[in-house]
Amino acid sequence: MAKIKLSEKKIQELKDVCKTFNNDKGELINVLHKAQSLFGYLPAEIQEVIAKELNVSVAHVYGVVTFYSFFTMQPKGIHPVSICLGTACYVRGAEKVLEEFKRQLKIQVGETTPDGKFSLSCLRCVGACGLAPVVMVGEKVFGRVAPDGVADIIAEYNT
Amino acid sequence: MNSIKLIIDGKTAEVPENTTLLKAAKTVGIDIPTLCYFELKDMNIENRPGGCRVCVVEVKGRRNLAPACNTMVAEGMEVYTHNIRVLNARRTVLELILSDHPAECLTCAKSGSCELQSMAQQLGVREIPYQGEQSKYRKDTSPAIIRDVDKCIMCRRCEMMCNDVQTVGALSAVNRGFMAVVAPAFEMNLEKSPCTYCGQCVSVCPTGALTEVDHSRNVINALADPTKTVVVQTAPAVRAALGEEFGLAPGTLVTGKMVAALRRLGFDYVFDTDFAADLTIMEEGTELLDRLTRYLKGDKNVKLPILTSCCPGWVNFFEHNFPEMRDIPSTAKSPQQMFGPIAKEYFGKKLGIDRKNMIVVSIMPCLAKKYECQRDEFKVDGDPDVNFSLSTRELAHLIKASNIDFNSLPADEFDNPLGESTGASVIFGTTGGVIEAACRTAYELFTGKKLEKVDFKELRGLENVRHATIDFDGLPINIGIAHGLGNARKLLEDIRDGKSQFHAIEIMACPGGCIGGGGQPFHHGDSEVIKLRASALYREDEGKPIRKSHENPFIQELYKEFLGKPCGEKSHHLLHTHYFDKSAAVFVEE
Question: Nearest C-alpha of chain A: how many angstroms from B490?
């Protein structure tokens, strides 16, 4: 986990988020949601700022962040790769596609490549079951992806 | 309040509404087993997460079994605490907990005092039918406390103590499901967290998941080394609790037996931290009077209230949480740390012993003392003023391991000069005691009159925050007392907000003061034990011929021969300290 240093401006933004929830410790989950949509992830320093603003312990904030799988302490890559594991995609071999991404990017689900380019996650159905199995990179949808097509997709972004 | 009638195991119980089934059952002589549940009556400390399910009972008409610790009584309820369904469920629950618990009872530090172990015995578990993956997590050793969370049963008592009672916030449940552990933020080591080492988590942990760092080995080695002069000091609260480890009733004073045992263990000099407590009163009391006099003369810069600084857990707490106020507490070192330099720089030099060849051991009711004696500012060229600190429990183990039949020991006396103490110093061990001792001396020094009534009963008790006004011959002195860091926090916030009316405040980190310290024999949630220890100390105080610190003849001699005057140059150098800002946010390292 990398140590980061937030700019004053970013910290102020975060404090403003807390303020919109009246710095109420009962709103911790909502604050974390907002913070994650603002920063993409919830690194240690962000959790410390939130703890201070809501007057709860950092350990408690970390407890909540690690309890809910939606929250992540890992920054997403520049090109977030999401593999659909919904029923249709799954029966058409999405798992093999996922394995291939893991192998080629050398990361697990929820992780980011050391160069920060790619991150890997799974999702459930993007409403394009006719194109199963489906992979999304950022906002772009790739349909009918086979394991041997994974290299091409990665190459498209790896320039 | 309405009273509720219900039937438990065929017996009619009548209790006030909002009573738990657990407590209702107690009124009719039924003791439902519990594991995660914890209560310290009279101190408003209760943990009932209903998590372990060992206390389940059957409630007629209810589909599932109910946790007795967490279910309230209702009119006409019919409850069964030991029918076959309940017994089977309770056993299964315990077997499942045990299936993810290391079977290390033979070598576990908690063996014999472990509540999980005694529960397994109580329910007669002879085998564990479930086998599966076991939790594996790194061991975390701090200067005072060891976390071995593989032994954790997620009762959440430590979390309750650390957050609700102490408001330290070092521990929280993190991750989820099988991966869940109680840990500091970002799962960093305790040493990097805001932990104060008060040890209250250790004193309530039902298993060996939280234990103290054991210094016994170091002490045994020092005693066996012929080139070392080994000196021991014993804190006031130890004598009121040590007997419990040898089957004596809580509140039994074992001062004389303790001294005899220490002598048999081979310590060259058996001294008393109480002597240093008297010294603390001289220094802290003088500082209080100095600040008070300046305040009365109109000095606007003087810092009042003055806060006591005897308690290392408390010192850690304000260094972490209120560093901007660190010029308010007295600069006087704690008695443990006053004893160290006096032993090595005064007593040792008198005997011609080089400080490197003297080992000072302290026996403390406290785990924070283990950290305190390792602080850099309490060392001279790397040599600590106090080398090792043993808890009351560790001393008991050491006595047992040395073939000493404690109960048959004849009473013995402390050595002089650092073993002579007054009644004032004995009561340091209970909440309110330090400030009462300070009042006895400060009154006489301030007014120049003899104090007729030595007992300040208004300063005693177990209420969370207490206050009293003491009449200093026409001048009303407002005293505040807090025990437990959550209570201390309230007083500190008042000071910060300019709302505090106190001249002096005593703060102890542990509920009850040192008698309830993290290094004491386990009270297992029985607050009577803590009360009995307190009354034992007041008894010892009453029985002492001298009850005011400044009348201790050896203290007077020490000032005459060596220190000069209280808060003088030499005192400043040896007996006073300074505090640090430890609030810096602790980021995860790369």
Answer: 14
Say if residues B280 and B338 touch (Cβ distance below 8 Å). yes
Structural class in CATH, domain A79-157: alpha beta
Q: Which 3 state secondary structure label does DSSP give B265?
A: helix
B276-306 pLDDT tens trace: 999 999 999 999 999 999 999 999 889 889 9
Q: What is the 3-state secondary structure (H, E, C) of B314-360?
A: HHHHHHHHCHHHCCCECCECCHHHHHHHHHHHHHHHHHCCCHHHEEE
Length of chain A: 159
Question: At B91, phi and psi to the nearest 5?
Answer: -65, -45
Rounded to a whole number of angstroms, the distance from the CA of B194 to the nearest CA of chain A is: 9
Asked if the bond preceding A147 is cis, omega within 30° of 0, the reply is no
Q: Tell me, what's the ipTM?
A: 0.90
Mutate to test the interface with B, among A45, A60, A64 (most CBs of B within 10 A): A60
Peptide bond before A75: cis, by omega within 30 degrees of 0? no
Coil, helix or strand at residue B13: strand
Neighbours of A147 (CB within 10 A): 17
Rg, C-alpha atoms of chain B: 25
> Could you give the CA distance from residue B56 to residue B71 in angstroms, rounded to a whole number?
10
Instruction: Tell me the pTM.
Output: 0.90
Where are chain A's structural domains?
8-67, 79-157
State the Cα angle at B34 between B28 and B35, rounded to 5°: 165
H helix count then E strand count, chain B: 19, 22
